[in-house]
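Below sits the subject:

***
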Amino acid sequence: MPEVPHSSARWVALVQALVARELVENIGVPTRRAAELLGVAPSAVSQYVRGKRRELLLSEYGGRPEVTLIAHRAAVALSETRRGSAVAARWVLEAAAQISEVVGGRPLAVPATPVDRAVLHGLRERVAAEQAAVTSCMRLAQKARDELTRAIFRQIASDSLRHAEIVASLQVYLEAGTNHSLASGIDRTDIEGLIRQEHDAEGEVGERLSGGLGGVMKLLAQSMADDEKKHERLLEGLLAEGLPD
């Protein structure tokens, strides 16, 4: 098994290479803008895209779904960063820290139950499909000429990215032989308190707002109401079957 590099600089270099490729190839960010966001020279971005730089790191870790997801999330966040923003470097450093934890973590235990390879293959295909949806939505968000239309495509991209992360997490658990899990570190009081906060945040404004809007504005207001209903289902589900007895 290859030795895991523990140098922070190497993890940052890996993130820069992966994110550069995501920005240019998948999201459509110009090379010079990608270089500006990453704090590197445009020539470096060109070499990352061609696979002529950080080849060993990319070949060793670039194909891992969980690593790709972290880089994809950082690229999406960077693509929306305003010029001159001081937070751009933070996304790279946070992604490097996350990849370090993922790659340097403990190996998975031997599966306690047989792993259904067809299911795992389907999960990998789902991750790829969700990532493709993110890419398409981000391109459309850049193409849109008004902020509200961009907000719709960014929301779909955010949902697809979250779906990909969930599927990748399910894959990790299934590969470890786990097909049933319960919440840990929280109790009923935590969940019940959050339900109250959600109700207070939504109030009656949501229904009145969507009733007075039209077009894209109405769609966005309705999407917020749908999200609140989804949150309620998730939290009620946690209370019903997601907590230890």
